[in-house]
Amino acid sequence: METQHKFQIEQEEKAKLTQKLKDEEEKNVSEERRRISAENKEIINRELMEKSQKEAKLFESERNEQINRRFEAEKELSHLKDELNRFWTTSDQYKKEKEEIEHKLKETEKLLRQTTQQRDFEQKRANDESKMKEIMQNKKIQAEKELKTELEEKEKSEILNKELNERISQLEREKLQIQHNLQLNGDNLDVEKKNMTKEQEKTKLGEEQRKKFEQEKIQMKQEFDRILKENVRLKQIIGSERTNEEQRFVDESNRIVSNEKKQMEIRLKNLEELKRNTEERLRIVELKLRETEQEKRIAEEKRIKAEQKIIELEQEKEQERDYVKVNEREYKQIQEDQEQEYAQVQTQVQTIDYESNLLVSLIPWNRIVKDLRQPLSRNERENNLVLFKIQKICELLRQIFKDQEDNTGRKLMIEQGIAESLLIIFQSFPLEKITKLNIQAFYDLTYPSNNENILLLCSKQPYPGLIRLLDHFNQAVVSNAIALIFNFLSATAIAQSSGILKIYTLFKQSNEDIETKNISAICIGYMYKCREIIDQNMKKEIIAFLKSLVYDNDQWTQKEARNALRYLGMNAGNNTEIKKGGFAIPT
């Protein structure tokens, strides 16, 4: 009876021990499951940040650890089995517990396999995304090269088209000149023909006069012979006493006849000379007529060639228009591809939780910096594409950093060269090409930010570009520029860029934009810290305006105006102006 009682007590103790072991095992398994689940989550989060080789090693280490744990669990189970085998009453219960533990271990192994498969899938997806990005980047580079080549060809075509148009205009002018010359030559020809007709009439008249003179000469000669004969006859009749008188008469007659003969010869000679001149003029006129006909024929040939050339040029121009239309379609396609690509990046940014390192790894910042640093050229279409890329990049920057307190991300962007690229745009691009979005994107890199990032930006020499923007026609751009200058405030650097004078000019001109006027005055107050404002007008206007702001409704303006007056008051000359009228800076 006593033995039976002891056995019963022993059985109860064994049952309690078994229950205790079971509870401890369940607790250990539950803790193990929670720990394994936590470790799995940690592995999933950590694998996004680590490389594939480290992940493989980590996975191998975890797997070995799990195997060791399993081995230890099996060893412990074996030890429990040996112990419980001595208690035949609890063997079935132990087997059930063992099966449950093995089932849980199998579930754990299954979960580990699923985790491994998921990690492998994520790694494969990351590799695929990397390859896809590389392929897209290569395609983009190739497309940009092709676009650049096509734009160069287009520019050459436009130059050729311009030259062809100038050539057409020149040919048209030559055609009109030739027609004008032909008309003038025709008019001259008509005049020459009329003159030639008159000369022919004069020649004909001179020929008639010459014949008439020859007839008169013959008649006079006949008359002279008749007189000689009559003289001989008279000599015979009258005698020698009258011979002298007759001789004088004859001599006088001979002299008259001789004079008339000479005059007749002179007139004949003049007529001959007139005839020769007329014939020469007729020959010259005929030569001119032949030359005119030749020129007319050549001009007609030139006109035909010019018209043919114009037709050819018109055909080339039409072909060029078709080529331009094709290039326009290709340009629009490239622009659509660019917009789609940046839209995909913006979609990625929207679909993931905000994490600086993850964003930097997903977005191709090197290519973005390259796009930001593309200079403008003389080709308007190529410039439009460059400006389009810059606008999309600025939209992306605003989407990532606007109102986000992310000093790490901003530091990465500054180190990547984004801020410096925007400053180059502010310094080199025409002001009309710089938009409000460009300066806002740069502003988002500075606010909200820590002093380390501000100093890092100051090392990029931002003042020349920002001060240049003070001449911008868009008041929103000017306001952002003056706010940025206030953030970067350094009197020496700004003075080197003639910034104080520009800010003072902006202060005087900003009567409608109160915020810009306030910030301009505060900036000048900060820049003249411990230094006297030499320009008396500037000193009076700035100090008077700052004194009017010390009770402003805006807390920031009120605070900064008081600080600016305190900085100015560190100089005796400025302090005298501040204290005029019994004014005291509020605390």
UniProtKB/TrEMBL annotation:
InterPro entries: ARM-like, ARM-type_fold
Regions of compositional bias (Basic and acidic residues) in chain numbering: 119-140
Keywords of this entry: Coiled coil
Key word Ribosomal protein present: no
Recorded coiled-coil stretches: 254-330
Record region (Disordered): 1-34, 111-140
The keyword Repeat appears for this protein: no
Cited Gene3D superfamilies: Leucine-rich Repeat Variant
Spans traversing the lipid bilayer: none
Protein name: Uncharacterized protein
